[in-house]
Write a structure and sequence with these properties.
It is a single chain. 44% of the residues lie in helices and 16% in strands. The chain is α/β, with parallel strands linked by helices and 323 residues long. The chain folds into two domains: 200 residues, NAD(P)-binding Rossmann-like Domain (Rossmann fold), CATH 3.40.50; 93 residues, UDP-galactose 4-epimerase, domain 1 (Alpha-Beta Complex), CATH 3.90.25.
């Protein structure tokens, strides 16, 4: 059976991807930090082989690629919080940006040594576009990041294109916001759904947010992981925007979450705090996934209200002790 290596396998996308690839009959290996090993062991199937290491350890990454000899590599590890990236810009650059080059270099060496093609997926982000003047954004939108996270992702994005020139199949998916119950509550979406469940459970409480007017293109994480697999296996390595093409505000997300638990007057429960507002945030991000639809045969399957509802239902079940 062909092998796949997933860095960041313990995260939302990595966990979903591991399940999808295992169901397809692939032998799945994953790289996790020592601090994340216990959680990954709980979350992932015993069929997945976990390897402890840090993505910034180039020798460790190279050795692991040689040992596993994967047909597919999904480099999903990295800093995922824009806010965190401002507090830790150097770490973000090393983990999310520079480390990607180590993965590409290891994959190319394996390919040259074995004479067997190695396919790599590098997840990019809508944050590489920064405050894009063009709405919606597509693969030709100028890359102009406005945060350390966006800059690190942009570096990895450009390096992917560089390694294509050397003959390595490196596809990138420019991912817009994608959610599931596996999201950490450090993300505003999970913060909202967990608060909605708690308010319904307790019959009281509030939810404190930053700028309610910020608009994002939110999709279902399993759909986006499917796009990553399709891009990896596509005939030609290329860049693909993965998005729904619809935007909703943070206020709309909160309203939908509270509606799911039977609360229509959502404004009563929501507070705003200027300290939570990020000046670097683009007021609107929305992607044009026409290329992915056309070339990959991909399309989102879960709409906004259902996405929010599934996350809320999960958090309700957690509080009820049945999840």
């Amino acid at each position: 059976m062909p092998a796949a290596l997933i860095t960041g396998i313990g995260g939302q996308d990595g966990s979903i991807l591991a399940g999808q690839l295992a169901e397809q009959g692939m032998t799945v290996h994953g790289l996790v930090r020592a601090s994340e090993l216990a959680d990954a062991q709980i979350r992932l199937s015993s069929a997945v082989t976990l390897h402890v290491g840090d993505l910034t350890d180039g020798d460790r990454v190279s050795g692991l690629v040689d040992d596993v000899a994967p047909a597919e590599i999904y480099n999903l590890a990295g800093i995922t919080s824009v806010r965190y990236s401002w507090d830790h810009p150097v770490e973000t650059g090393e983990v999310t940006g520079l480390a990607a080059a180590s993965v590409f270099a290891a994959a190319l060496r394996l390919q040259e040594t074995t004479g067997r093609a190695v396919r790599v997926l590098q997840p990019s982000s809508a944050e590489i576009f920064g405050h894009a003047a063009r709405v919606p954004q597509d693969e030709t939108t100028p890359i102009a990041p406005a945060s350390p996270y966006g800059a690190a992702k942009a570096y990895a994005h450009f390096m992917a294109a560089s390694y294509r020139i050397l003959g390595l199949h490196v596809a990138t998916c420019i991912l817009y916001n994608h959610e599931s119950p596996l999201r950490s509550d450090a993300f505003v979406t999970r913060k909202i759904t967990a608060a909605a469940a708690r308010i319904a459970h307790d019959g009281a409480g509030t939810l404190t947010l930053g700028d309610l007017s910020v608009r994002r293109d939110w999709g279902w994480a399993e759909d986006y992981v499917d796009a990553m697999v399709r891009a990896t296996r596509h005939t030609a390595a290329d860049d693909f925007v993965v998005a729904t093409g619809e935007t909703h505000s943070v206020a709309e997300f909160a309203a939908a979450a509270l509606r799911r638990v039977g609360i229509d007057d959502w404004e009563r429960y929501v507070r705003t705090d200027a300290a939570l507002v990020r000046p670097s945030d683009a007021p609107q991000q929305v992607g044009d996934a026409s290329k992915a639809r056309r070339e990959l045969g991909w399309a989102p399957t879960v709409g906004f209200d259902e996405l929010v509802g599934r996350m809320v239902d999960h958090d309700v079940a957690l509080l009820a002790g049945s999840a």
